[in-house]
Task: inverse folding
């Protein structure tokens, strides 16, 4: 099974500027609600582990879809949002992506990063709801609040 973990950080704890809060609030008010974190949270990172084992290696469309979404999100955060200090890893069965401290991002970078990460979440939702994924227990998406004690 593929396990996707989204790490959230509340706007209050992210120490972003009032301008950034205003722009992000606009985003939250216009975004859909499915699979997305609460309106007071930002997506800080994601990690993906495991394999779907839906089919043989090279023919597993669920693994391929999740990997494609993750790689596209990482590349978009780097190229489109221009986040040079993005930390990431792309390996078979082990993908992770972590934004720098949110307070270090410009308002534009923060807004773009959240649009891209939320689009990634919507793509994961579509995979999870697909007929292929419904046929077995191939993918699980969970959210973790980074403020919670582990």
Result:
């Amino acid at each position: 099974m593929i396990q996707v973990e989204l790490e959230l950080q509340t706007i209050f704890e992210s120490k972003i500027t009032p301008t950034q809060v205003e722009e992000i609030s606009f985003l939250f008010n216009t975004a859909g609600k499915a699979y997305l974190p609460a309106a007071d949270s930002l997506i800080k990172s994601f990690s993906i582990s495991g394999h779907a084992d839906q089919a043989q290696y090279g023919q597993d469309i669920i693994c391929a879809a999740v990997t494609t979404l993750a790689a596209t999100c990482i590349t978009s955060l780097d190229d489109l949002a221009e986040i040079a200090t993005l930390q990431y890893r792309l390996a078979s069965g082990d993908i992770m992506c972590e934004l720098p401290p949110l307070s270090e991002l410009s308002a534009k970078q923060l807004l773009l990063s959240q649009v891209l990460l939320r689009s990634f979440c919507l793509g994961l939702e579509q995979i999870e709801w697909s007929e292929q994924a419904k046929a077995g227990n191939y993918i699980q998406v969970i959210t973790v609040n980074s403020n919670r004690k582990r």
